TrEMBL record:
Residues covered by the FAD-binding FR-type domain: 8-103
Protein's name according to its UniProt entry: FAD/NAD(P)-binding protein
Stored PANTHER family: DIHYDROOROTATE DEHYDROGENASE B (NAD(+)), ELECTRON TRANSFER SUBUNIT
Organism field: Zooshikella harenae
Lineage: Bacteria, Pseudomonadati, Pseudomonadota, Gammaproteobacteria, Oceanospirillales
Amino acid sequence: MNQPIASFVPLTTTLMDKHQESPGIFTLYLKLNTSAPFNFSFGQFNMLYLFGLGEVAISIMGWRNNLLLHTIRAVGRVTQPLVQLEPGQQLGLRGPFGYGWPLEQTKGKDIVFITAGLGCAPVVAAINHTVEHKQHYGRIVILQGVKHHNDLLWQTQYDHWQNTGNCQVLLAASEEYKHRYKWRLGMVTELLNFAEFDTENCAVLMCGPEIMMLAALKQLAKLHVADEAVYLSLERNFQCGQASCGHCQLGPFFVCKDGPVFHYPTVKPWFGLSGI
């Protein structure tokens, strides 16, 4: 897996643009106020902070036109004021932290992305990378689940991926049905029954609620996908990003430092256990 490239020196960034994706969810476009290069791996996260309020861990959603992208759900003490910022205002950034997706190691394999809800944010940049470099991969399969079809973020992005050769996009809405060619009623894990990929030569990249990932793991086992083919992006209460506070401990691991992306066999004994 990609080695973490962490910077513990806080940077000042400027909000250049803000886009509302859906009610309560915004993407921030940040300019780094430094001439130093910002190197990150897809799947890593940053700690964004507001001066005098605190900081919060947010996955890196992408890099576009020399701007860093973070998609945020406004639900907490820090995230709500973050999305209220206006272009030109400044905020702090530490990072990047953790391990990212193993995109180099999985070349030559079919790539299956399984996400639900806002869990798609940590893999969007990875999906874009594999689509843009599809000559290095086999078939690309994207499975995304939401409650209602209006909850789907980046609709045009999914349309673009669907129209890309050798890429299959399957979407599921658990509480309604929308009559479009790619929507199905049910859970995202049920989409695995319709996914077309080589179960013996694939890499599965998952991110979302743990209950969803546990259900997907059971379905993958039925399809004879080996545990060694699966990678998970886990969420915990990240407070420091340096494995110092202990809030994100999972068995012997600290998710902020040893993850957030894990090879499933590494965390299998602890993943899904109550109280961990």
